[in-house]
Amino acid sequence: MEEELYLKLARVLDTLPNGFPATESGVELKLLKKVFTPDQADLFCDMRLSFETADQVAKRTGRPLEGLEKRLIAMGKAGQLFAIDFGGTWIFKMMPWVFGIYEFQNERVDKDFAKLNEEFGPVYGKQFFSKTPQLMQVLPIEKEIVVQQEALSYERVSTLIEQNQSFWVNDCICKKEQGLLGHPCDRPMQVCLAIAPVPGVFDKYSHGRVLSKEEAYALLKETEEQGLVHLTANQQWGNIYICNCCGCCCGVLGAINKLGIPASKVINSHYYAEIDAEKCLSCGICAEKRCQVKAIEEGEEAYQINPEKCIGCGLCISTCSGEAIRLIRKDQEKIVPPPIDENAWFEERGKARGVDFSAYK
Q1: DSSP bridge partners of 325
Q2: What pTM value is reported for the model?
Q3: How many domains is the chain built from?
């Protein structure tokens, strides 16, 4: 009976637009058993991708209301559901495996979880990155975008900061996982930024650190100096996070570096970098220390950027002492605007995967 509950949960997660592929080894079920009790797995399958109160869940599903909100709040704190307290009214919704349940296991991840996810990662990645729209889009370093190439609002990291009132930073689960596996990263760990449009959202969080707007900007500046790529959800509105990612740990950038999946399928990018061979000093800093996706190679006379690999983050530009690199906006026909919001992303992705997730809307 318990095994059937985990199989049902896995099928539900795979029916969602983000997917959750089955493996021959069943490692995905072992992961779910690490995260959910059987009762929690059963309750998750009754949830939807849209917010509901406990009362609404009870009326829709026929579950007893008594104790339901308490259980849902506990699942929210355990990273199994998305739970928000809006002025004393709690609302809840299910989350996909990525971006969602996996990222919210930050406080519970251990070596066993890390090993299981490392085994599951290649199978999950091959399914996940085989379809578009991509999960994330790049937010290039703004100071490297020339005035003539004015970025759209959803391409600017400053827009996300100015549109929001609550900021919170937590450890990167990808870095934490790699550290547990014996591959520690030499870049800062506490770099994952959550954002919200109303004040006080993160004040009661028991982990991580609440930031002011000024501190959020300072964090982004620090991550740029450390050579981390700004990534956010591939949507125009309603973004709730800004990840600051390295190529050695990040599961998304790892799909490019480790799985060999083309960058254009992994990340939505609106720019690419170009090196002026006459100005290049051939110091190699851009290739060796700044580029997180191995898009820069040494040529006969100067370093060269492969535009098919480049994700247009701008990290290579800020440390170029010869001022040989510039960020160029892609031709309009090569730019794919992100879906308007998360729901539009779900619709496009579900259609691309051919899954009917209408029961979970």
Answers
A1: 275
A2: 0.95
A3: 2
